[in-house]
Structures are given as structure tokens and as C-alpha cells.
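Protein 1 of 2
SEQ + STRUCT:
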Amino acid sequence: MRWLTALALVAVTLQGQEQTTMGRVSFEVASIKPTADAGNHRPIRFSVSPGGQLTVANMPLHWLIANAYNLPFQSLRLTGGPGWVRSEPYDIQAVAPAMFAPGISAREREARTRLLLQTLLGDRFGLVIRREMREVPVYALVVGKKGSKLERAAVMEKDCPAQPPDSGLYCHHLDGGADGGLHGPAVDMGDLGLYAENWMDRPVVDATGIQGLYKIETEGWGTVAEVDKASMFTVFEERLGLKLELRRAKVEVFVIERVERPSGN
């Protein structure tokens, strides 16, 4: 599970709400190759430098699609497609320096990265995604019987665009996982539910009614080798005053309608 702990942080900003009004954007140059030594347990990598250099190593297309549409990597809300989408990893090098001017916020940088990825996947993999609402079993994030134990963040939403990526107050950003707990200096309940979904067997929806940004710090609820979901529920209730309840709800589902192996560089 270490790969999940390390990479789940990629898809953590507020679901479905891009912070840019740009039209179609694309990388200036992009190289896509099947991972040559995928069977040698190379680490999975996804990073975007401040100057706009995207580096992807040993990542299945399914994860790239999840990243592009701000979904947890394990999400059941991304469906369809042939088996190779989940089993064949790729290495990608791409650049778009004009999209990442100095001074843009971390959240804006993530939003632009998602738009660039959507274009890249459409152009090079022929990806077509259909989005629809479906009623499915979910975990609803709710306030526990003893009330919320959440701690207010040091910043408000209006302060977030001014926070540089290295400020230590990275809004709408969570990292960590089962073996080390969750850590986020300024997140809302939508962010928390989306991130928690990485360890769930169904979507997580926010039903807390809580608004604003909060500091999240929890202990772990399992090990790298084995995640204890029941312990995760306990951590949420005892540390945050929140519960995960079984319900049914309508959620947005992303269906892979068409995809093909990438065209040449």
C-alpha cells in the first residue's frame, strides 16, 4: 500500500471544481512510452515541476485518467475500458512552461495540470469519457454523536490563492495514509471525503454540513501491507468527531467509452 500512500495526494483538490476558465490547453511537447521494465517493481511516479515539466513513471492509464478527472486512484466511480487500461503502465515526459508562470497558486497549478492531462489523454490515447449521475452505495461522512472535533485552519478560503506551493499552508491538500495518518493544513470536508475514498470500497460523500477549512491531523489505521478499515472508522470518530455511514446517494460516474493504445511520439 505504500504506492497508494505516496500517490493518493495527487488527487485531493475539491472534486469537480476547476479553478481556471481557460479553454482547450495542451502540452507543447509530450513523449509517451510503455514502461520498458514494468515487471521489475519500479516505483510509480507522478510529478509536475514549478516550470511545467510533467514526469510520469510506471503509471497505469487508469490512474492517469483518475488524476485527470480528480478521482481517487481506487475509485469505483471510474468504470469501463479494456483490461490493459489497468494493467499496462506508461512513462510520460511533457512540458508546458507557459501554463505554469511563477506565482500561481498550488491549487491553480493542479487544476491546470488536470486540464492538460485531459487534452493529452484525448489526443494521444483517443480517450472519450462519459459523465453521468448514478445512485450507488456510498459512505456518507457525517458528524458523530458527540460532535465535531475539527480544528479550524490558520487561513480562510480567500487567503488560499495567495499561498505559494512551498508555504506550508497548501490549501485543499492532504497527504499520508494508513500507516502514518492523514495530514492537511487547510482542507474542507469535500477534500477529506475524496481523499478517504482511496481506502474505501465505495464512494465517500460529504454529508456533514460543515463549511470552511480545517486542519487535519490523525494517527494511522493500519500498516503498509494491510489496511484496517474498521480502525480507520475509529480514527475518524475519535480524532475528528466524524463518522462514515452506509447510505445510497447519487454520485457522478466517469465511464470510459473509448480508448486506444497511444499514438507515436
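Protein 2 of 2
SEQ + STRUCT:
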Amino acid sequence: GVDRYSGLDGHHLTDHRTGFAPHGLAWIACRTTSSRIDIALAARTVTRPGAPVVTNRTPAGTVQTFRLPVAPRRSVTVVKTAALYTSLDRPAGDLVERAMEHASRAPGFPALLTTQHSAWERLWEEGEISV
């Protein structure tokens, strides 16, 4: 673990739920213990070349195992795209469904990189930092 968090009891999340959906989707949902904020995270994993996936649920997470053919001078690609929602997001709704929908429909990496760069640029412009 991280040294600065060693004094914490490690029980800051509760009510874990996990699952899988078609097309490489895995999800996890939980709640923060002190602030009672619900959280849902869904992730889409795509491999090139395509590979079958073996899935396994644990009490607090999901595991996806891919076996890819690896050889010298031969590329493989693994792209994981995630969507995160909390009960603080509006409008309210089923957080797992929203996270799975957005993770499954998200565009490819170049388009996501462009939108993320623009979003972070707007946030930095709106914020004020005083030193």
C-alpha cells in the first residue's frame, strides 16, 4: 500500500457489487462508508488481435484474463476505456447502467484524448490558483 495511507483502516468502501456484460465490459459498484456516496465504474477492454476472455468475480472486484499471441516484431494492443459515475452526478439514475452505457459507447482513444484535453483545459481556465 501507500505509506501515507497506512494509518487508515482500509474499510472506506462498502456494499461491493461486481459483474460482467457482453463485449468486454466489467463493472464494480460500491459506497463510501463515511460520506455514503455511491460509485459505479465500468470498463471496456478491447484487444488486437481479438482474444477470448476468461472472467472471474471476486468479493470486491472483477478479473478479466486475455491470452494474446505474442511474438517478436508482432504488435498486440490492449485498450481499456472506463466510465465512472457517482451519486453526486446529475441527473440521478442507475449508476451501473450509465457507466456501462458510456464505457461501451465511448469513442476510440484519439477522440477521447482530444475531449479530455479540452475538458481539462476548460477546468484550468475556470479555476484560480494563488501561491
